[in-house]
Amino acid sequence: MSDNRPSTNARPSSNVNQNGKRRNEEGQDDLPQPYNASSLQPVKRRAVSPSEQPRKQKRPGARARISESQREAIQRRQVERDRESASAYEEQNNSRGNHDVVRQHYNSVPERGREWRTRDSKIKGLRVFNNWIKSCIIQRYSPDEDHAPGSREAGRSSGKELLVLDMGCGKGGDLNKWQSAPQPVQLYVGLDPADVSITQARDRYRNLSSRGGRGGHNRRPQPRLFDGRFYVKDCFGETIESLEIIQQVGFDPSPMNRRGFDVVSMMFSMHYAFESETNARNMLRNVAGALKKGGRFIGCIPNSDVLGEHVRKWNEEHAAKKKAAEEAKLNGSGADEEPAEEKEEGEAEDDEPPADPGAEWGNSIYRVRFPGKTPEDGVFRPAFGWKYNFFLDEAVEEVPEYVVPWEAFRALAEDFNLELQFHRPFLDIWEAEKDDRELGPLSERMGVRERGGGSLLISEEEKEAASFYLGFCFYKV
């Protein structure tokens, strides 16, 4: 076969002949062939723009014309975006900071043992009283509606065992209370953000397991100990749905959830969620998602009515003192006082009045202090972010807590299909349950009262501190 590549010295006419020959042999030759440039179509011209006015060309480097008002508006929007971004960042940091402060505090509280708590503690009366109150709430509101009262005490099986989720379980201080619950517990899951507390809760559970559980009075045998699981988890800032044990039991916030826990407990911890509406809603979503239909949400929190009344009285007294000081100044009662020191040349003038102190009250064992301005009428609006510092001797060292306005909490709980069943201050619970057939003798065995139905064995200062709290129960409907 002859070489079909064109010669570089060939004339145009010979190129045409060779191209013709190549086209005739194209079907027989599989080798790649060169393009014939002479056969290409000429490039089409772009159509003229239909617009009547030709677009004006910008001069190189010329700036788009923006009016001064438009420029100011753009700058204002940018400043607002920067401010919102900084505010969101600061709020996130503050929230994270408060969370870390609380976690570190509870991690640092030493575990002194049961004997010290009941004998040597300065607030042993308050400790046993609060524990008795928690026992009352568990005894009254943890069982199913169809549970037969007294069946466990009589040694009869009720057929159904409880699945319990304890949010903010701390060091496991309520394990014995659940072991003594009227309806037996099959599974107990404890969650807490403090890793040291979770470690101590596991140790307490192992010790309880080695003893086989604490038996009841009247020589009843020790009941079988429930299955206990413990996890480090923030139940307010995160969803608990990702935990494998939660998925196994069932998680569904809808009212049609037939799976899930029978009881969610939150003792002395829920107030941390009211730092923000986001955290409060996330907390309630976790509660509602974990509970089955008909499940109970029980717990205890600071009483917002007590907080509000103290704040209202403090504001009244502070306003009266301030008014008296101003009237004394107007009446010239300070005329004989020494004149204020003159400012040195160049020294800045301090024209800002001193900030008003926040509301504060308490006694030798507890103290509440608001760091900023509080509502004059004692009604906390809006419902979130009302921070105060709380001190309780031997237990809480100036930790930031948050007011839980009761009506706002109840209304928010309804959004998650949680219906209120019980709501009562601690001292009212004592009056209602102290003579109960089971809870009355329990108060004597715990050292809350004297034997034989005697008087309450806590001091007036401890009673004042106890009045700071209330108990509650919601049903998932």
Automatic annotation (TrEMBL):
Where are the compositionally biased (Acidic residues) regions? 335-354
Question: What Pfam families does the annotation carry?
Answer: mRNA_G-N7_MeTrfase
**Subcellular location field:** Nucleus
Q: Where is the MRNA cap 0 methyltransferase domain?
A: 121-477
In this chain, composition skew of type Basic and acidic residues spans 65-85
Positions marked as site (mRNA cap binding): 171, 177, 204, 271, 401, 469
Protein EC: 2.1.1.56
Q: Which InterPro entries match?
A: mRNA_G-N7_MeTrfase_dom, mRNA_G-N7_MeTrfase_euk, RG7MT1, SAM-dependent_MTases_sf
Disordered: region residues: 1-113, 322-362
The cellular component terms of Gene Ontology attached to this UniProt record, alphabetical and capped at eight, are: nucleus
Q: Transmembrane region positions?
A: none
Q: Which UniProt keywords apply?
A: Methyltransferase, mRNA capping, mRNA processing, Nucleus, RNA-binding, S-adenosyl-L-methionine, Transferase
Q: What PROSITE patterns does UniProt report for this protein, alphabetically?
A: RNA_CAP0_MT
| Reaction equation(s) it catalyzes | a 5'-end (5'-triphosphoguanosine)-ribonucleoside in mRNA + S-adenosyl-L-methionine = a 5'-end (N(7)-methyl 5'-triphosphoguanosine)-ribonucleoside in mRNA + S-adenosyl-L-homocysteine
Q: Which GO terms describe its molecular function?
A: mRNA 5'-cap (guanine-N7-)-methyltransferase activity; RNA binding
Where's it mainly located?
nucleus
Q: For mRNA, which residues are the binding ones? A: 130-131
Please note every region of biased composition (Polar residues).
1-19
Checking SUPFAM superfamilies in the record gives:
S-adenosyl-L-methionine-dependent methyltransferases
Please report which protein family the annotation says this sequence is part of.
Answer: Belongs to the class I-like SAM-binding methyltransferase superfamily. mRNA cap 0 methyltransferase family.
Known function: Responsible for methylating the 5'-cap structure of mRNAs.
Task: Specify the protein name.
Answer: mRNA cap guanine-N(7) methyltransferase
